[in-house]
Sequence to fold (461 residues):
Amino acid sequence: MTEAAVCPVHQDRDHPLRPPVGFQEAVSDGPVRMLWPNGVEAWMVSSYAGVRQVLSDPRFSTRKGGQPEMRTDAGEAVLDPDQPGNINGIDGPEHMRLRRPLSRGFMVKRMNELRPRIQQIVDEHLDVMEAKGAPADLVASLCLPLPSLVIAELLGVPPEHQELFQATAGDLFGKNGSKDEYLAHATKLAEVLAPIVAAKKAAGTNDDMIGLMANDTDFSMDELIFLCIGLLAAGHETTSNFLGLFTLHLFEQPDQLEVLRRDPGRADVVVEELLRYTVGHLGGPGLTRRATEDVEVDGVLIRAGEWVSVSLMANLDEALCPRADELDLERDAVSHLGFGFGPHQCLGANLARAELQIGLRTLFERFPNLRPAVPVTEMRYRNDMITYGAAEIPVVW
Amino acid sequence: MTVRIDQERCIGSGQCVLAAPDVFDQSDDDGIGLVLIAEPPAELLPGVRDAVDRCPAQVVTLDE
Fold:
């Protein structure tokens, strides 16, 4: 393999719901070398089979340190590779030790038990939105508070810390902050969480996630605190963006919105297709791994020590489904990569599914005439975040 | 037709339960996947194949 031209990774979009300009063209022809904003070069893999391989083959490590980063703070990794409790930075048995107790907390039947409470939170927030009257900001009215309240209850953190958690979770995903700023945000969260974790340990209870981790595992205090920060941050920042982006895609494709309106009972299948399509259209950089041995991916030899990033644009690969670049809510669910793949696949996937299914279904049942108050292209988007989404979604009904 | 889960490598994602709820469950102790019906009847096989495909840890197998 000769050295291909190295393209810079960027996230400039000419339409807020489409991949960054030129990205699809740059990465579609097999693994290519790309230069990241922090100056690190990595292979970019974007085929469906290639992404599944990289994310599930144990010869690709997720251990961090000097990895490609979107943060502009050149070269400086914000996290120590040995940070205790960094579940996304360890492999094999070490990873399983942390992952298994958490999987128990997020298992399917537990998430199903949460559904009535999720429905209640959605109903209450839509009641308030309706009472205040149009126009409303959907992000502030539903998208942000829903996952934020649910993850806090699941973890068992008192409601008075909600605002701090929500604001700080956002700060942790900023693209422009320095390492010192990142660590200051993490420290602020740790200071609030430490006494909560200590109290659950003293009480010996396991009826919420923190209690379960504190009392049914051998996790150290440092691990517990960092895992809580990770769960809070992930719980706040991801589902909220997706609920908003789903709604915007549906506004832009009224024929598809009609499919959901006609049969709200299909919300589970609809959410899978929206996950596939939305994550595919985020484009840009995805998850990073490092080869520990020479491995061939999509016909290209990746050498031991080289970085690989996978683009979840693989969700638009025709190998996954026909007309993969189209949103088709009548299609059966396919094995998309919206939650990643491999042993590090999103831990909260089943919680996110429940929130997105109930949130989306109820939103359009309650407000069948919901529509954007300004054109989708004129709304504000969070281009300064690692996790992309709309900052505001003004709606009328 | 035998369904198996390699429990050593299972991460407890529950994808198999979503794909074929009659065939799979998760352990209350650690969330690890359990096979409820090791020799499922033909009508449950599409769901089992879906589980094999979707399992992020690639630990569900169907010996045909």
Q: What stands out?
A: Strands of chain B lie at 2-5, 24-26, 33-35, 60-63. The domain at 2-57 of chain B is CATH 3.30.70.20 (Alpha-Beta Plaits). The first strand of chain B starts at residue 2 and ends at 5.
